[in-house]
């Protein structure tokens, strides 16, 4: 009876243990199913690969991507599946191996995780594959928008620079026109008075010489003639009469020079050029030289070689700005004494102007940027970086070209090509 009770107790214990085991197995099965359902909700492709490179587990996303069944995937070599991808180039923020699927035109990021929890019991490697095609497209669109924004900003800066320069030149033009008008009036009557004074001096000189000749011809000199002759000698009247002619001639030349400067100032200040007019480029350069001469005369010897060129349609005042910029820059590039050469000639259907200097020259990296707005090699406060960019735009408006050739320590040459027939 007692043995039977023992067997019964063991059976009961075994049943209870079996029930507990079934319960635990059910818990594990539910946990496994929950985990599988959880992984199946993930958009990323997730799979577990053993140390031999064969697939042990994968989620639904990976199965659907491959188009194979779980039975076909489990135990398959991962290399055979990865062969359909190409290795791509990663971009900023992309961590992992970048893959490209040429047939689907999709981009992915592959990341690897060691599944070992420690020791040597490694379950294999976990792989995640994330589709980044839309992210890349969004980044590309963002880059495009940024490029457009940058381009628009640069264009805005250039437009603002042109507007500021136009306003500045308009203000300078009106001021110069007013100054030229004010100078022109007194210069006119100074020239007129100098002409009259020259005539008066000739008459007075003739009268003095006639008086001396008359006294010298008398048989007996009149009383006081000796004193008069002594005063004539001490006063150096001969020298005064002779030098008076030189003084009047130099004064007249100076007044005429002022008149020429006023004329050039009027040309330079012309701000109402609504359309192109035919002009002699040699004359425009000469007028600009008259304006810029004060910047040049202390630094350089000027050499001119003006060719026989036809008049061309142009904005003379705007071209004068270009020549002024180039001439002033040439003078400033010469540290002590140098040479500035200006040459004009005709080539095919265009007039060419070359302005060279023997100054400090420019390295290649400066030459590449010389026409950029706001670029300058001058110290802060000594240059705005707008002169050359505006000159470039003016030549472009004439459908012309401007190029630069320079060598550090040897000098620089700017060559401008202006077509015979340009459209505004």
Structure description:
The chain is of the alpha+beta class and 424 residues long. Helix content is 55%, strand content 19%. The chain has eleven helices and 13 strands. The protein has helices at residues 2-40, 60-66, 70-73, 78-82, 133-217, 225-234, 237-268, 281-296, 316-333, 364-369, 387-397, and strands spanning 45-49, 55-58, 86-87, 97-101, 106-114, 125-131, 277-279, 300-306, 312-314, 338-347, 350-357, 401-407, 411-419. The strands form three sheets. It has a six-stranded antiparallel beta sheet with strand order 2-1-6-5-4-3. It has a five-stranded mixed beta sheet with strand order 8-10-11-13-12, covered by helices on one side. Helix 5 runs antiparallel to helix 7, helix 8 packs parallel to helix 9 (316-333) and helix 9 (316-333) packs antiparallel against helix 11. It starts with a helix and ends in a 5-residue tail after the last strand.
Any descriptors?
five-stranded mixed beta sheet; 424 residues
């Amino acid at each position: 009876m007692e043995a039977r009770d023992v067997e019964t107790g063991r059976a009961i214990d075994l049943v209870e243990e079996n029930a507990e085991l079934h319960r635990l197995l059910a818990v594990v099965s539910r946990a496994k199913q929950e985990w599988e359902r959880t992984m199946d909700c993930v958009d990323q492709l997730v799979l577990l690969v053993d140390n031999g490179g064969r697939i042990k587990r994968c989620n639904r996303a990976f199965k659907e991507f491959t188009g194979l069944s779980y039975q076909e995937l489990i135990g398959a070599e991962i290399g055979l599946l990865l062969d359909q991808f190409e290795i791509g180039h990663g971009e900023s923020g992309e961590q992992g191996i970048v893959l490209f699927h040429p047939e689907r035109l999709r981009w992915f990021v592959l990341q690897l995780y060691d599944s070992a929890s420690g020791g040597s019991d490694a379950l294999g490697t976990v792989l995640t594959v994330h589709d980044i095609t839309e992210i890349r497209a969004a980044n590309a669109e963002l880059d495009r928008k940024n490029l457009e924004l940058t381009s628009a900003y640069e264009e805005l800066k250039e437009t603002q620079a042109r507007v500021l320069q136009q306003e500045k030149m308009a203000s300078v033009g009106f001021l110069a026109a007013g100054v030229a008008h004010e100078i022109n009036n007194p210069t006119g009557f100074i020239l007129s008075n100098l002409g009259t004074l020259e005539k008066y001096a000739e008459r007075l000189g003739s009268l003095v010489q006639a008086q001396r000749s008359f006294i010298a011809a008398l048989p007996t000199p009149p009383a006081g003639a000796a004193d008069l002759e002594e005063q004539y000698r001490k006063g150096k009247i001969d020298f005064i009469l002779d030098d008076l002619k030189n003084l009047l001639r130099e004064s007249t030349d100076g007044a005429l020079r002022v008149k020429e400067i006023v004329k050039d100032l009027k040309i330079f200040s012309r701000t109402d050029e609504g359309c192109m007019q035919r002009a002699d480029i040699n004359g425009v350069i000469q007028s600009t030289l008259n304006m810029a001469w004060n910047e040049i005369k202390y630094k350089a010897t000027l050499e001119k070689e003006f060719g026989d060129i036809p008049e061309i349609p142009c904005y003379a005042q705007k071209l004068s700005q270009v020549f002024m910029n180039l001439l002033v820059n040439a003078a400033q590039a010469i540290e002590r004494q140098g040479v500035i050469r200006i040459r004009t000639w005709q080539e095919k259907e265009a007039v060419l102007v070359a302005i060279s200097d023997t100054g400090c020259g420019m390295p290649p990296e400066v030459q590449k940027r010389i026409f950029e707005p706001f670029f300058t090699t001058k110290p802060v406060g000594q240059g705005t970086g707008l002169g050359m960019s505006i000159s470039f735009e003016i030549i472009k408006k004439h459908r012309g070209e401007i190029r630069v050739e320079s060598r550090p320590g040897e000098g620089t040459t700017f060559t401008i090509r202006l077509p015979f027939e340009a459209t505004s």
